Amino acid sequence: MEVSMDPLFLAWSYFRRRKLQQCSDICSKILHDNPYDQDSSLCVSEAVWSLKTRALTEMVYIDEIEVDQEGIAEMMLDESSIAQVARPGTSLRLPGTSQGGGPTPAVRPMTQSGRPITGFVRPSTQSGRPGTMEQAIKTPRTSSTARPVTSASGRFIRLGTASMLTNPDGPFINLSRINLAKYSQKPNLSRALFEYIFHHENDVKNALDLAAQATEHAQFKDWWWKVQLGKCYYRLSLYREAEKQFRSALNHQEVVDTYLYLAKVYQRLDQPITALNLFKQGLDHFPGEVTLLTGIARIHEEMNNISSATEYYKDVLKQDNTHVEAIACIGSNHFYTDQPEIALRFYRRLLQMGVYNCQLYNNLGLCCFYAQQYDMTLSSFERALALVDNDEEQADVWYNIGHVAVGVGDLTLAYQCFKLALAFNNDHAEAYNNLAVLELRKGRVEQSKAFLQTAASLAPHMYEPHFNLSILSEKIGDLQSSYTAAQKSEDAFPEHVDTQQLLKQLRQHFAAL
Amino acid sequence: MSESSCDGGRWLDAHYDPVAGLYTFSSCVDLADLSGDGESRLLVGDLGSGSSGMKLKVFRGTALLSESTLLDLPTGLVAFFMDLHEPRIPAVAVASGPCVYVYKNLRPYFKFTLPGLEVNTLEQDVWQQAREGHIDPVTLKEMLEGVREKADVPLSVRSLRFLSLETSDMDEFVQLHKQQPIRRQTVITCIGTLKKSTADEDGVSCLVIGTESSDVYVLDPEAFIILSKMSLPAPPTMMDVTGQFDVEFRVTVACRNGNIYILRRDSDKPKYCVELSSHPVGLVRVGKSVVVGCTDESLQGFTQKGKRLWRTILPAPITTMAAMDLPTRGFQAVLVGLANCDVQLYRDKNLLSTIKTPDVVTSICFGRYGREDGTLIMTTKGGGMMVKILKRTATFDDRDSAPGPPLAQGVRLNVPKKTKLYVDQTLRERENGVAMHRAFQMDLSRMRLAAAKAYVKALESSLAPVSSSLSEPLKMNAVVQGLGPSFKLTLNVQNTAACRPVMNLAVSFLYDESLYRMRNPYMRIPLLVPGLVYPVETFVECTSDKGISDIIKVFVLHEGKSRPLLTAHINMPVSEGLTLH
């Protein structure tokens, strides 16, 4: 005769092995056999109920600290910003000039918001804040780079609906009929229930109710509930209330997570300096904490202070020498400060750690080329081409091969590569710009002009197409267009010396009798 | 006090009224002791709104003392002594339109009108016939047009106005005006004063007037008759006069053709001419040299004979210029108002100091105001008035305030150091140079092949959004706007040929019909003129609520050919809203 294991223990075991679906199935079966309301086995069924709640939560759990993207509504309809023109160095909204003496946009490309591109793609640094509503709506919001309308709707609703699909009979817990007051009295159940409501059902209002009642039950002494309250307020965009809760939670208990949440609140309130101070305060209590150091580095990076960001990334590596983000960011910084051989070291380190993707080979190829290790350049690109996942990546690889081709003087190959980049990604403004320069060399002015105009409309933040268009117009004698294009170039990159000279020359031309 | 501190504390801020409502230029501002009590008043010819509200305003201290309405826009204002009566009270001359209005004790005293110009005799005959009723307005128009084309003497204002009328209004105009004789009148462009016979401070002065008809007149101060007439090759815009009429004088005139002419007593034609490289915007005489500001943001110094002494570049365009003359200290310099809200003080080509102002300055006047000798009065573009007093302890160094070698010389270039790693790698290159070169060349050939293959594939299936074929060189880019479920799709199609239009094109889409619905999946494109961008718009509706997105392919087709000319792939954004049912 087969000896069967106690089903509850089996479910617990499944849960620990992260076989969550099986765990949830067994729990459902136990609950079906002895419904929850019967008093006889109250203790057991409570445990089963709690386990199933946790299993369901774990299925859709996302790290609240990392996943955070400002939606269009939060950026454009921001009510909490007070000073429209903040002093440079005190705001994340104002990209400003580079303070840390980092490379100029002529060397290191810019994102749309006027920040140098980073070595590591994160939700908040992906494309920065657009200047106008139209720009926000027009930016290619494809599935890979989508920006949600609001953080409350976009990503979270999608997660909520995904979990609905897994339960065809309806939700496990019917929130409208649940007595929150009763559960808030039971500390062993209430936390699991809260996480279920917050993460699985994504019903922030009910979660807030439960948290408020539970924290009252705990006589406002439980830091955990205060953090949860803060999370709810943060989700509802009530940043000042969230700040109060997190601050109060920190008074009870110093936890790294709380510092991170609070710093997120300050970044949302556009107070990067306060966030930096908070991180440093956190570091006093938790010296060498990697997440806090990374947070500081990210803020410096967002504020265009690349050199101090690099310092903090180096500190991160001293604590954790497998931190991918830190390695990638330091590597890209070395690449753009004319030390590709050191960047190559960092990227090779990533390769040793098992990161094996198209982007990495792409970077390796470029580093090899600029560090004059020619024998490995093109083989890296070949591997990158073999590893591409989607058309955008393919376009980027072809674009970089085009650069190598320009470097070795093979303009036919370069022309083909840029064309291919465009075929795979129709919005590749850089490829349009470079193609225009090649067309101009061939003497096809009309085509070149059309490409430059397209590049300028696709990426108004880049100064190159404006500047090239200005030079082209000046050569063919259209001084007025040349002047307007030069002015746009000046807006995009005020320190560009060639633009300044061109403008000066044009002004002299206009003033001359 | 921040303004004065950046100037080394040389000026005291006496008064600033940002809403004084003064709209004027340097030529219409003067200082004079109008009551003979030793206290100078400020005279301002206010341009009002440009069409109404022109006024002659007199300020005493910070208060407006009196104002009287002017009939037309003032072009210049000067205070001058016209007689030898005691107490010595100057008269005020305001040039406006073709007249000079002279005020004494702030009351209208005399009006001098410029003599009429010679009238075309043919024109006179034609109007004579019209008056007698020999010709109708249409014939009159034809004849006047004939006269305008042939004659040396230009037509009068009346005839020009008549020629610009509609046929229906002509009759009325002729009836209204035919009785009056024809006159040709010119207007005053600038005004100045010239001492009659003595160089004294309170000596009797003549008025010097420049007119639109390119003449310069010198008027007798008592009888207001023309003492002398000189003619120029172009209408004057700014003028500076020095010397005495009875002894020797010199009139420096900046003209509208960009030249500066210097007139002397003995000849009625210009003696010297300076050809500038761009238009002059300010003319100031300092001692024996003339300082001219030009539109190319430069300041130039000339001798009395028109020889250029120096040229210096300014940081911004010039708005106005004035002389700063402090005879008690023997200090003479030029004040230059700039469009970047600075007022700079130059002695020769040396920048002595800079005053920051809260607004762009449009007029500057320096002199004795009230009982204070060194007073600087400025009005701003926004209608504000500013009064600053030069401190008695203020000194100006005679050298440039930005001396020494250029700043760029001191900046160190940020050249990164070559690392040890780099040196090691160069060693590797040196040892394995041949092998590396071979590997690279082989890789390059393979890469060329791979690129060519991919390129041919892209060309064959017309994947690229750019076509460079000789018959239809086209370019397309697509923009998606909207949050969903409705999106607006804009295709910008452009013909990049040099001069040939492209016809018979159509657009078609390929998409997953279970996900998207398109309002018109097939569209015809009109004839494409080279160089213009043609936006083709359509609407796409996302019918799925699963939060997924797909690619929509756009093809540009030529009628009668199955192969597309262009293809664009649009990565549709995820639909944020849900369709309403």
> H/E element string of chain A?
HHHHHHHHHHHHHHHHHHHHHHHHHH
- Output the radius of gyration of chain B: 37 Å
Task: List low-pLDDT spans of chain A.
Answer: 139-166
| Beta strand count of chain A | 0
Please state the structural category of chain A.
mainly alpha
The best one-word shape of chain A is elongated
Give the CATH H-level superfamily of one domain in chain A: Tetratricopeptide repeat domain
CATH topology heading of one domain in chain A: Serine Threonine Protein Phosphatase 5, Tetratricopeptide repeat
Outline:
The complex is a heterodimer of chains A (513) and B (581). Chain A has 26 helices and no strands. Chain A is mainly α and 513 residues long.
Topology record:
The complex is a heterodimer of chains A (513) and B (581).
Chain A: H1 7-16, H2 20-33, H3 42-60, H4 72-76, H5 133-138, H6 154-166, H7 180-184, H8 187-201, H9 204-217, H10 223-235, H11 239-252, H12 256-268, H13 272-285, H14 290-302, H15 306-319, H16 324-336, H17 340-352, H18 358-370, H19 374-386, H20 391-408, H21 411-424, H22 429-441, H23 445-458, H24 464-475, H25 479-492, H26 497-511
Helix pairs in contact in A: 1-2, 2-3, 3-8, 8-9, 9-10, 10-11, 11-12, 12-13, 12-14, 13-14, 14-15, 15-16, 16-17, 17-18, 18-19, 18-20, 19-20, 20-21, 21-22, 22-23, 22-24, 23-24, 24-25, 25-26
Chain B: H1 2-5, E1 11-17, E2 29-32, E3 41-46, E4 55-60, E5 63-69, E6 74-80, E7 91-96, E8 99-104, E9 107-113, H2 121-131, H3 137-150, H4 157-163, H5 167-177, E10 188-195, E11 205-211, E12 215-219, E13 226-231, E14 236-244, E15 248-255, E16 259-264, E17 272-275, E18 280-286, E19 289-294, E20 298-302, E21 308-313, E22 318-326, E23 331-338, E24 342-347, E25 350-356, E26 361-369, E27 372-380, E28 385-390, H6 420-431, H7 433-460, E29 466-467, E30 474-481, E31 486-495, E32 505-510, E33 516-518, E34 522-525, E35 533-542, E36 551-558, E37 566-571
Antiparallel strand pairs in B: 1-28, 2-3, 3-4, 4-5, 6-7, 7-8, 8-9, 10-11, 11-12, 12-13, 14-15, 15-16, 16-17, 18-19, 19-20, 20-21, 22-23, 23-24, 24-25, 26-27, 27-28, 29-30, 30-31, 31-35, 32-34, 32-36, 33-35, 36-37
